Amino acid sequence: MSELPWGRRLLMCRPEHFTVLYEINPWMHTEVRPDPDRAMAQFDGLMAQLLAAGAQIELMEPVEQLPDLVFTANAGVVNGRQFVPARFRHPERQGETAHDAAWFTAHGFAVEWLPDDVVHEGAGDALPFGAPGAPGEPLVLVSAYRFRSDARSHPALSMLTGAPVRSVELTDERLYHLDLTFCPLDDRRAMVAPLGLDAYGRKVIDALVPELLVLEEDEALAFCANSVVVGRNVIMPSCPPRLGRILESWGFAVAVAPVDEFLMAGGACRCLTLALDVDLRG
Amino acid sequence: MAPAIETVEIEGHIIDSLILAKVMDLVLAAGADYEVQSVHIGRTNRDISRARIQISAPSDEILGPLLSQLQAHGANRVVQGDAELVAADTDGVLPAGFYATTNLPTWVRVSGRWVGVVNPEMDCGIVVRPGREQPVRTVPMHRVRAGDLVVVGSDGVRVEAPERPRGAGPFEFMTSEVSSEKPKAVVVAEVADRVRREKTAGKVLAVCGPAVIHTGAGPDLARLVRAGWIDILFAGNGFAAHDIEANVMGTSLGVSMGGGTPSDGGHANHLRVINEVRRYGSIAAAVEAGYVDGGVMYECVRRGVPFVLAGSPRDDGPLPDVYRDVVEAADAMRYLVSGVTVALMLASTLHAIATGNLLPAGVQTFCVDINQAVVTKLADRGSHQALGIVTDVGLFVSQLAEQLGGTPG
Fold this sequence. Notes:
Oligomer: heterodimer
CATH superfamily of chain A: L-arginine/glycine Amidinotransferase, Chain A
Largest interface: A-B, 23 and 17 residues
Shape of chain B: elongated
Structural class of chain B: alpha/beta
CATH class of chain A: Alpha Beta
CATH superfamily of the largest domain in chain B: putative lor/sdh protein like domains
Distance between the termini of chain B: 27 Å
Largest sheet of chain B: 7 strands, parallel
C-alpha cells in the first residue's frame, strides 16, 4: 500500500473576499451570508491542520468580487509542470480563470487550454487514482460530468494531459462536483458516495478502486468526501465515528477541520485546496 | 409516421467509462435502435476510443429529445451534408456520377432532413422534387426528364441494411439460399401461411412461366385467382398462349393435358389459338365472346386481376395483349408492383429476374423452380430477399392451392 503520490504541496487562497454573492449550487442562498471572521478563523484552522500533516502551502492573492476564488480546487488540472485552467460553466466564476492562469504562469507552469466550447471545473471534477506502475504508466484521471463539466471536455483533457480519463456521471445536484463524491485515499483505496453517481459511474469506480469506503447518504451530504489527504493524514470537514474507525483501522490519522462557513457556498476542505504536485504521468 | 435517423459520434475512454454501454442503453430505453457503424478502440488504456453510431427512432418526436439526452454524455450528431443534386440536361439521361440505387430502404438528406425514398427499386437514379407530396423517388433512366434534380455521389444517401430474419421458423435455413432437400409440405405450408398473413396488408403477385401450364398446374393457379389469392399476374406470351391452348384445345404445346400424348398437328395448336385471340382483338374480348371459357387468363379477366404480358423476340403471334416494347412492359410492371408484399415466381426465369429488379427488398419473394440455377441467378442479381424452393412447380401450385383453400379472409 503506497501513500498518494500527490497532495503534499497545496495552493490556497485566503477568504478575504469570500461571501455568497450569487446562487449557483443548491447550498448557496444569498440571504444567508457567511460570517467573514469565522470563515477566516476556519480557513486558518484548516491551514494549520494541513501544515501539521506535513503539507506545504502556497497562497494566491484574493480578488474582490471573486468570492469563490477561495475554492482553488476548481482552478484547473495540474499535471507536472503543465496547468490546464478550468472552463467554468457559470459566468459568475469565469472571472477567476485569468487570475489562476496568471498565478501558474508566474510560477513556471506551462498553461494549456481546453477548447472554449467545453466546460470543465478543474480538480473539482477530476481526481487522479491509481498506483504509479511501470515507469511512464499514467495515473487514471477520474472525471465527472453533468452539472459543472461536460462529457465532451474529457477527451480534450485526456489529449492535453496524456492521462486516461474515466468519465463518471453525477446524479445528485447537491453533490455537484466529483470531489464531493469521490476521495482517493492511497493507491488502492478511496471514499465514494454512491448517492452522487449513476449506476454506470458506480461500476466504473468499483472496477477501478480495489478497496472502497462507501459513504452513507448523510455522510456524503456532510461533505465527508471533500477531505484532504496528505500522506497518511486525512483532514475532514467532519468525521462520523463510523468513518473515523474505518480510516484509523486502515492506518490513517484523521483530523477534523470545521469549515461550515464555507459549506454555505457549497465547499469544504478539498475545495479550498489544489494539489500542485500531481503528475499524471505517474 | 416516418422513421427518424441520425448518426452520432462519441469519443473518449468510452469503453472503460462504460459511456458507450450507457449510450446504447439510453437509445434502447427511448424505444429507438442503434447500429454501431464503426468503433475505433484505443491501442492502450491511455488512447481514446471513438464510435460512430446510427440511431433510428420511430419518429422525430422520439429522436429529438434522445439526441439532446445523448449529447450530455458526449455523443454528438455527425454533421452531415445534404445530398448533392444535379439537374438532368437531357431526357432519359441521368447526370454523370448519379447515385445508382439498390432495392433496400433508402434515405436521402434534403435540406438537413432525412427523407425516405418512396419506391425503392434497384438500378435506378433518385430524383428529388422539393415541395411535392412524394419528394424523393427512384426513377429509371429512361423516365428522367431534363431539369429533374438527380442525386449525384453517395454523400447524404443512406441505405438500411436488410434485417436478417430472427427465430427458428422453417424458413431460417433458406435465407438467401436454395434448398432442394427440405420437406416440401412444410415449405408449402409456410408459404401459404405467409401469403395468408401478408394478404391482409398488401398484394400478392404471381410471375408465371409456361411450365406452370405444361406441368398441369393451370387449373390450380386458376383456382387461386378465382378465390382472390392472386392480385397481379406477370407472364410472357407463352404462358398466356398455353393457358388458353389448354382450355380451348386441351393441349399444352400440342401435348394432351389429359393423356399426355402428342395430338395430331398439335404443334400448331398454340398458333391457332393465338391467331383466334388476335382476331378477337384481346384476351378480354375472347373471354367475352366465349372463345376462352376457363383457365388462368380467363379468371384474371373475370376477376379484374391486372396482368402484364411482356413480349420477347421469340414469341409466336404474339397475343394482342403482349407488350412489344420492353421498356413499356417494364413501366407497366413497375406501375403495378406498388403495394405488393408477396411475390411468387413460378417457373419463370426472365420475367422473375425482371420483376425482382423492380421489387423493394422488403417484398417476400418465393422462387419456385425445378432448376436451382434460376434461384441463384435471381439472388446474384441483387434480389437477396428471394427464397428458393427447388421443386416441380405443378406439385407446388397444387399443394399451395389446397393449403390456401377458399377465399382470403
